Amino acid sequence: MLDEDRATTARAISEAEAWAHVQAICFKTGPPRRLGVELEFLVRDAHAPSRPLDRDRHSAAVADLRSLPLRSPLTFEPGGQLELSPPPAPSLTACVAEAEADLDLVRATLRAHDLTLVGHGCDPYNLPVRFLDQPRYAAMEAYFDRRGPAGRLMMCSSASVQVCVDAGYEEPGPLGFARRWRLAHLLGAVLVAAFANSPLRGGRPTGWRSTRQANWADLDPGRSQAPAEARDPRTAWAAYVLDAPVMCVRCDEGPWTVPTGVSFRQWIRATGDHGAATSADPAPSHPPDTDHCPPDTGPGTALPRPPTREDLDYHVSTLFPPVRPRGHLELRMIDAQSGDDAWRVPLAVTTALFDDPEASERVYRAVKPLAELAGPHPPPRNPLWRTAARDALTDPELHAAALAAFAAAREALPRLGASPRLQSAVADFTDRYVARGRCPADDVLDALLDPRPGDPVSGKEGRR
């Protein structure tokens, strides 16, 4: 970063500048050309995956993993979950190949420590334990603890397959960014249902096929639910960002400040020159969740300094809606999948439905009626998304939408140059789950009634 750029990001930001900055970076439009995937896994004992992870073994493995010649950034979540984020790829084939190559190296290194990667949306057995002691995670924990246990579960016990697609064209149409934004929030419920893979907590059924998604809906809604639907997604997202509560204020030494009930907009107005954001600046994008606010919530928390553009960018990184626009679209609702290669299926299906124009148009028509089931509330706290997390594809409307979505994706994959192996994986998943109104969580629940070696809860390939 140039010295001039550093000075810009480090000085106090006005409300007008914050509004303009968010609108400038949230949707970067153009032809969809790149895609990406972020793969999260639980790290577990290779011989006893239900056993709590040993810190010393995990630390030794992490040290060896850091020395690997990976092309993908490798990071760890607070509970020790591993995340691999291959660079954006020009094609589905390239994205899969790069992730597979790096995962092979990671798995070989973990085997030397008798550890393995396990794909579940939520740890089926263990309580959340924070391994990482950085100020960011201590502040996150303190913030979420005011509301209840959902934050710690999200931080330390969850894992997902996050698919990243380009924002799309500025112009309207099947690949226009406004259409893709709306599609993501309707199709997202179908993806939750089709790939639900977290029905257990403490070794027992929770009543949800995606406990991870149910837990996400219990997080602070000011940072975990989607913006209210609007004609202009940029305006809706900018309002959402400025009105979202500030999780923490960073500092160089000592613990970070964790304010209560202070939005980013209020931070600017309380400590600096807020100015006028824009004549189009609407009211807050979502009403205050008064039934669930901590009892000490209020705008009176002392803030140590005015916010900067760096603070604004960091603030955006602490927002966890099901679809997050960061130039591209991050789809964050898919549970981690059991089996070494199972992550390829949600990546392939999602890519096909967003980046093939014919498939995108077909699936949009198929999921559009789901808006009536969603009602007026944004995901994930509306009836459609709760049904997806609880009932998955046993719900007839979600099942019908999933059948249409997977059919469109399978027809599109050859047009996108997907390998026969990848096409076969999607076909097998469709036959095994979607056609039968099932999801991976159903295998886990079946295994509780009829346990066999290699059942899905162990993290290895289950019964066919």
TrEMBL record:
<dbReference type="InterPro" id="IPR017809">
    <property type="entry name" value="EgtA_Actinobacteria"/>
</dbReference>
<feature type="region of interest" description="Disordered">
    <location>
        <begin position="273"/>
        <end position="311"/>
    </location>
</feature>
<feature type="region of interest" description="Disordered">
    <location>
        <begin position="444"/>
        <end position="464"/>
    </location>
</feature>
<comment type="pathway">
    <text>Amino-acid biosynthesis; ergothioneine biosynthesis.</text>
</comment>
<dbReference type="InterPro" id="IPR035434">
    <property type="entry name" value="GCL_bact_plant"/>
</dbReference>
<keyword id="KW-0547">Nucleotide-binding</keyword>
<dbReference type="GO" id="GO:0016874">
    <property type="term" value="F:ligase activity"/>
</dbReference>
<dbReference type="InterPro" id="IPR006336">
    <property type="entry name" value="GCS2"/>
</dbReference>
<protein>
    <recommendedName>
        <fullName>Glutamate--cysteine ligase EgtA</fullName>
        <ecNumber>6.3.2.2</ecNumber>
    </recommendedName>
</protein>
<dbReference type="Pfam" id="PF04107">
    <property type="entry name" value="GCS2"/>
</dbReference>
<feature type="region of interest" description="Disordered">
    <location>
        <begin position="202"/>
        <end position="231"/>
    </location>
</feature>
<keyword id="KW-0067">ATP-binding</keyword>
<comment type="function">
    <text>Catalyzes the synthesis of gamma-glutamylcysteine (gamma-GC). This compound is used as substrate for the biosynthesis of the low-molecular thiol compound ergothioneine.</text>
</comment>
<keyword id="KW-0436">Ligase</keyword>
<dbReference type="InterPro" id="IPR014746">
    <property type="entry name" value="Gln_synth/guanido_kin_cat_dom"/>
</dbReference>
<comment type="similarity">
    <text>Belongs to the glutamate--cysteine ligase type 2 family. EgtA subfamily.</text>
</comment>
